[in-house]
């Protein structure tokens, strides 16, 4: 492959959407997002981190200090982002996928000791510096980890979460893009 600076891309803009599992998923990079998904608003300047990972099991033999074979043990895919907006959608997601309710004009969120399902569908959408749109579409993910919420005088309240992608009938996720450099020659 030759060097091509036009294929070096930034991701200056994007959106994160979450919705109930079973919400109608987009099937390309630009179709309208189903109303069941809720946009999470500002994500901090670190953006979104996507980490695909495989766990290998080494097969060791008496005659070698190195593995002679490996087998695929696990496949993991996680998504990490930090929400910068404070509202009923982001707080409900952060606090164990709960619902904020209106109680006589005020917000009320009950944090349960047994919160139930942490599963959500998600769409991560980004527009690169060439105005091409890409989407990571996740049919099922579980809210796996949350960062500590810090309440400080000189910084925003940041709600950091990590989603662990789950298998959905043999698929973890889909990536769609209208970037012409992503389309293989036929």
Features:
186 residues, two-stranded antiparallel sheet, mainly beta, 44% strand
Helix segment tally: 1
Helices and strands, in N-to-C order?
Answer: EEEEHEEEEEE
Helical content (DSSP H or I, runs of 4+): under 10%
How is the biggest beta sheet arranged? 8 strands, antiparallel
The number of E-state strands comes to: 10
Structural class: mainly beta
Oligomeric grouping of the chains: single chain
Calculate the mean pLDDT score and round it. Answer: 96
Beta-strand percentage?
35-45%
Cα(first) to Cα(last) distance is 17 Å
Question: Overall 3D geometry?
Answer: globular
> Low-confidence parts, pLDDT < 50 over ≥5 residues?
none
Radius of gyration from CA coordinates: 20 Å
Task: Explain what the structure shows.
The strands form two sheets. Strands 1, 2, 3, 4, 7, 8, 9 and 10 form an eight-stranded antiparallel beta sheet that branches. A two-stranded antiparallel ribbon has the order 5-6. The chain is mainly beta and 186 residues long. Helix content is 4%, strand content 44%. The radius of gyration is 20 Å and the shape is globular.
Present the secondary structure layout.
Elements: E1 13-19, E2 38-39, E3 43-59, E4 69-83, H1 88-94, E5 101-103, E6 106-108, E7 119-127, E8 133-146, E9 159-165, E10 174-177
Antiparallel strand pairs: 1-2, 1-7, 3-4, 4-9, 5-6, 7-8, 8-9, 8-10
Quick rundown:
It is built from one helix and ten strands. The chain has about 190 residues and is mainly beta. The strands form two sheets. Strands 1, 2, 3, 4, 7, 8, 9 and 10 form an eight-stranded antiparallel beta sheet that branches.
